[in-house]
């Protein structure tokens, strides 16, 4: 056996250099890996609003329902740390409103089971934080909207969440002649003192509903409020107002008409949120954003956020747990948007995937 002294100094030096290079190369990926950081406020005096995208694929399969439970449980656990003051859900709460015979392929839960699942998931927030849930096209009719009959009011009645009741100011009649939260106005004062009015609108709202909403936001007591519209279908992935969709309902206004008849003529509508759109495993196809100006020249920030076909397509896991966190800074103008998945965040194995940071997923905007 040769001793180290038997090798020439130049050979030893070469071997050492090779070892150093190899060790450095092997450790580079680990050193370059970003450390996971859980959601936190950029400013401790901020408050946040969470956007939950269409839940329908979470609830149509029994195996997916725990993911929605995880999302609302995460919101409940972070109310204090993130100063969560409001939660919005973009609609399509269920896949089918009144189906009794699931085929086991496109879903394995009856409509009753789906409604119970989504209602139970939101029950984690009852009495803890106000939330507003839009009614989407799948929340009406039998399999999809052919008429405006819905079980929405049975599972999301006015008295379900005391926090909602405290903010509720008005409710319009739905298509069945019943006042429900499908079309409702909620008054909210932010921790920074900004008075806000959240208006929830049914899918493809009827002319009577748009006229009702327009009168509410223009009322003397609300004319200085910052009005926020929540409705299911509004923008497409090209950041355009949706002009028309081929649903067999007698009357309905889609994105462009909602903008022209309600949003643009109003002096105080400054934000619009919606969902509805998507394509299999394509995050960009689920989102959109645009800025216009209303009749008073104020910026109207309009955002669509969905995730239902991410995580395996339309029959996948429902959306990989993605939600959006909107941080309203103390300057009363700046809103920071971040896209986060509590599903990926629960395990060290997947935490590096818990944030989406493309420019359409992490950005900021201002409100006047």
What would you note in describing this structure?
This is Metallophosphoesterase. Pfam families: Metallophos. The chain is of the alpha/beta class and 368 residues long. It folds into two domains: 33 residues; 322 residues, Metallo-dependent phosphatases (Purple Acid Phosphatase, chain A, domain 2, 4-Layer Sandwich), CATH 3.60.21. The longest helix has 24 residues. Strands 1, 2, 3, 11, 12, 13 and 14 form a seven-stranded mixed β-sheet that branches. A seven-stranded mixed β-sheet has the order 4-5-6-7-8-10-9. The N terminus is likely disordered. A hairpin with a 5-residue loop joins β11 and β12. The protein is 24% helix and 22% strand. α3 packs parallel to α4 and α7 runs parallel beside α8. It is globular, with a radius of gyration of 24 Å.
Q: Could you describe the largest sheet, including whether it forms a barrel?
A: 7 strands, mixed
Count of alpha/pi helices:
9
Return Rg in Å. Answer: 24 Å
CATH topology grouping of the largest domain: Purple Acid Phosphatase, chain A, domain 2
CATH-assigned homologous superfamily of the largest domain: Metallo-dependent phosphatases
